[in-house]
Write a structure and sequence with these properties.
Helix 1 (3-20) packs parallel to helix 5 (167-188), helix 2 crosses helix 4 and helix 3 packs across helix 5. Helices cover 42% and strands 15% of the residues. An eight-stranded mixed beta sheet has the order 4-3-2-1-5-8-7-6, with helices on both faces. By secondary structure, it is α+β, with helices and mostly antiparallel strands. The protein has helices at residues 3-20, 75-84, 97-105, 137-147, 167-188, 199-209, 212-225, and strands spanning 27-31, 38-41, 55-58, 64-66, 90-94, 126-127, 152-155, 159-164. The chain is globular and about 55 Å long.
Length: 227
């Protein structure tokens, strides 16, 4: 069993433990080391149920090259993002509840806590071409275009996509984004005039808090919390 399959399975279980599972929906992928496509969990399993044996290799045409079980219909999210972004080696798509809620309000994500500084500034992009599933390469390409060079994108009325140069960094980004959205919604629930960091302070906090060693340490922590 490859390390890539093991990483995708670990990430899936971490995201489920972080509250981003949605019955059998949501998926993590990793770019295949040999350029054959992406490793992604088989459909019809909850993220908390993913084992390395339930991770399959899917090529750019949606064919299952290795592994068993049905393929996720939204594979173009993953294949088109990695095709558009040579720097991205892993993609997370979940229906993170607080992120979905915040994006639906039309508000920008604001750095009201440490968490949002991983993403803003600039503004987190918003994909609004459709709130339906990303079922075709054409939709995958348009989503990748909206993501641009950002670390994450809101699929409005649908979910999130978070990316990274590794499964570890993409997973941490998805976890932190959901925490940032939850904190903003909590802050606004108390009324008044919320405050947030300036762009200069946000950039400084990103460097101080989310440097590569810290991101790896967060991943290690999340792995330790799994049952």
């Amino acid at each position: 069993m490859s390390t890539q399959q093991e990483l995708v399975a670990l990430s899936s279980r971490i995201l489920a433990a972080a509250g981003q599972g949605d019955l059998i929906w949501g998926h993590v992928s990793c770019r295949d080391d040999d350029g054959r496509g992406v490793w992604i969990k088989s459909a019809e399993w909850g993220m908390e149920e993913v084992t390395p044996e339930r991770v399959q290799l899917v090529n750019a045409d949606g064919e299952v090259v290795s592994g068993t079980g049905p393929r996720h219909s939204e594979y173009p999210i993953h294949t088109e993002v990695v095709a558009a972004r040579p720097d991205v080696n892993a993609v997370v798509h979940t229906h993170a509840p607080h992120a979905v809620a915040l994006a639906a309000t039309g508000q920008e994500l604001r750095p009201v806590s440490h968490a949002a500084n991983l993403f803003v500034p600039p503004e987190v992009p918003r994909y609004t071409e459709t709130a339906d599933l990303i079922l075709t390469p054409e939709l995958g390409k348009s989503l990748a275009a909206e993501l641009g060079d950002a670390r994450a994108v809101f699929l409005v009325n649908h979910g999130i996509v978070a990316v990274g140069d590794s499964v570890e960094s993409a997973t941490v980004a998805a976890v932190v984004l959901e925490r940032a959205c939850e904190q903003q919604l909590l802050t606004q629930s108390f009324g008044g005039w919320p405050s947030w960091s300036s762009p200069e302070e946000s950039h400084a906090k990103r460097e101080h808090i989310y440097h590569p060693r810290a991101v790896q340490a967060v991943w290690d922590y999340l792995v330790r919390q799994l049952p």
